[in-house]
Design brief:
The chain is α/β, with parallel strands linked by helices. It contains 6 helices and 9 strands. Strand 1, helix 2 and strand 2 form a beta-alpha-beta unit. Helix 3 packs parallel to helix 4 and helix 4 runs parallel beside helix 5. The structure holds NADP nicotinamide-adenine-dinucleotide phosphate (NAP).
Length: 231
Amino acid sequence: MSESTERVAVVTGGSLGIGEAISTLLLHLGWRVHVLARRASSCAHAAHDGCIVHDVDIRDIDAIKESADTVASSSGHVDALVLCAGVGYPTPLVSVSRAQYDELCDTNVAGAVFSTQAFAPLLRDGEAVITFVSSIAGRRGFADWSLYCASKHALEGFAASIREEFRARRIRVTCIQPGSVDTPSYDHLPPEEKKEFMDARSIAELTVAAIRLPRQACVETLFINNAAGDL
Ligand SMILES: NC(=O)c1ccc[n+]([C@@H]2O[C@H](COP(=O)([O-])OP(=O)(O)OC[C@H]3O[C@@H](n4cnc5c(N)ncnc54)[C@H](OP(=O)(O)O)[C@@H]3O)[C@@H](O)[C@H]2O)c1
């Protein structure tokens, strides 16, 4: 099979940051890439040959199902499902609100759960890889980041279970756990506070390398920490 003509990826949150870097790398490798985000149409690579944009809110289950139907009719199958859409910000316990809880859990957990469910029938048995973009916050806790850490720990638990559920189909499940990465989600920080952050391209290269491994090999967890440690 020629990788340049037949490989299909779906990348949620593929319009910016880590998801944009993963989408762009796959497009350059000749994959057809379906990008799902609220403002997918305005992403930098929307006009790239092979890029198909879906303007959807990952929290809207019906909208995700509609996107899956569109992918089914236009591409027929999926080789890589990358669940990258996410939000993160500090929430000191004293000021945690129900609205913050809903935003973080609906996006980071429910969005990934129902996207996986919607696209599962399209995943190619024996070939496909599901990649969850988790975080170092899915491995341990950080003061003032309790809601974000809770959402990423929940995502890790979901991924660990889905990995076993999909093993019979030989569909591989990977969790990517980056430390701090310089993306638009940190645009509010001054450059000096981000000088030790990783770039999104580094995360994308390792993610795509894991996706492209031979079908017998599965990177189950990929922890990519900052060389400087906690930032
Ligand atoms: N940056 C880091 O240091 C870091 C470290 C570890 C893990 N991560 C994880 O990596 C992932 C990407 O983070 P990032 O830093 O690249 O963030 P980013 O630059 O803010 O990009 C977030 C992406 O998710 C999409 N998105 C957010 N909410 C959405 C929603 N409700 N529906 C559909 N799409 C939505 C955004 O597009 P729209 O706004 O157009 O919807 C965008 O494409 C997240 O899961 C994050 O938790 C980030």
